[in-house]
Amino acid sequence: MPKNGYIVGLDIGSKKVAAVIGEVTEDNKIEIIGIGTSVSRGLRKGVVVNLEATVDAVKKAQEEAELMAGVEIDSAFVGISGAHIKSFNSRGVIAVSGKNRKVSREDIRRVIEQSKAVSIPPDREIIHIIPQEFIVDDQDGIEDPLGMNGIKLEVNVHIVTGAICSVQNLRTCITRAGIEIEQIILNQRATSMATLTPDEMELGVGLIDIGGGTTEVAIFERTSLWYTSIIPLGGDNFTNDIAVGLRTPIPDAEKIKKKYGCATGSMTDEQETIEVPSVGGGKKARILNRHLLADIIHPRAEEIFQLVDNDIHRMGYEKSLNSGIVLTGGTAMLDGLEGVAEEIFDLPVRRGDPGGVGGLSDRVSTPDFATTVGLIHYGHEHWKEKGGPPKYREGFWNKFKNWIKEA
């Protein structure tokens, strides 16, 4: 890859927009050189509901990342989520062409193409066709059948679709911000690349990403993605519960959640108190026990995990979670959340912090940056296959530094 190649991940969530710039080093590693965030007010449950507000948020995050990195963002790998996302598994079957009966790249292309020959509503478009495994004659579990001998080639795939209008609105916001879209990537696919280990993905693991408006679920086994779903509940529901339960404005409830939030009452000191502003601003702030906050958060956490567990059992993937559950997303930073998940799933649970990057890695090492860092990893793998990313225009500071060197 080029020495000065840059990869940009853009995560447009219900709570914040994050843009992260990664530089590919000479030894083919990723260093984070630019980070930009802004408050997101144009999305609801992962879907664009206000174009102008979303464009403004993207521009602010873009400008902040550019200023820090000293480069201009031309294009980005963009994450997508929302209740409109639907996915299912499919299978394609073809006869291997050619006299020698060796599987060629054209055969692989044809069988994947054939796998999407299913009925898809006219208001939906395919975002991903992700191969899970290939079968040559009766031999299954093949990751890459190229060059193998056989008569019949089959493939199992995971197909992800989105509502055409929702996907197009997302594209419009990004292009109006002056950014070219390299690819649109399902959030769960990107997040897994930053938070899951190869062993977990081989043995079987559940990934639960609790964002502001939605909870994204993915199940991996034998290194492949087998199931994805989206629950329309997230961190905003915790905030609303706190606002109602403590009778405090929503902005204050959000601050209280982030600073004092805990999902397990036993983890709080019975004597610990918190200051709670009253609605209207006229009354004095009240002093309440922090344990009360845990009593509000715990039931909502149980509800979300129970919905996920019911979903997994309904689809028959409960036996695929041999490595347990990985929690990530901004809401995963709530104290005690892993304990609630362990009670519901009866499995080991860990927090998924993004990794595998250098540079300003400490700035993106928390679960709320898992998807953005994952998009960088996805872009890195994509460009390795393509031979390297396009060169980005140098920003003012890079030009200035080069001018100093040449002077």
Blueprint of the fold:
Blueprint: E1 6-12, E2 16-24, E3 30-39, E4 43-44, E5 47-48, H1 51-69, E6 75-80, E7 86-95, H2 105-115, E8 124-136, E9 139-142, E10 152-163, H3 164-176, E11 180-186, H4 187-195, H5 198-203, E12 205-210, E13 215-221, E14 224-231, H6 235-246, H7 250-260, E15 273-276, E16 286-289, H8 290-315, E17 325-328, H9 337-345, E18 349-351, E19 358-359, H10 370-386, H11 396-406
Parallel strand pairs: 1-6, 3-19, 6-11, 12-17, 17-18
Antiparallel strand pairs: 1-2, 2-3, 4-5, 7-10, 8-9, 8-10, 12-13, 13-14, 15-16
Helix pairs in contact: 1-3, 4-10, 6-7, 6-8, 8-9
Strand ordering within the main sheet: 11-6-1-2-3-19
Backbone shape: globular
Q: Structural class, please?
A: alpha/beta
Write down the CATH class of the largest domain: Alpha Beta
Q: What's the helix count? A: 11
Number of E-type strands? 19
Secondary-structure element sequence?
Answer: EEEEEHEEHEEEHEHHEEEHHEEHEHEEHH
Number of domains: 3
- Beta-strand content estimate: 25-35%
CATH architectural label of the largest domain: 2-Layer Sandwich
Mean pLDDT: 90
How far apart are the termini? Answer: 28 Å
Determine the CATH topology of the largest domain.
Answer: Nucleotidyltransferase, domain 5
CATH superfamily of the largest domain: ATPase, nucleotide binding domain
Uncertain regions: pLDDT < 50 for 5+ in a row? 391-407
**Rg measurement, Å:** 23 Å
Largest sheet: 6 strands, mixed
Helical residue percent band: 25-40%
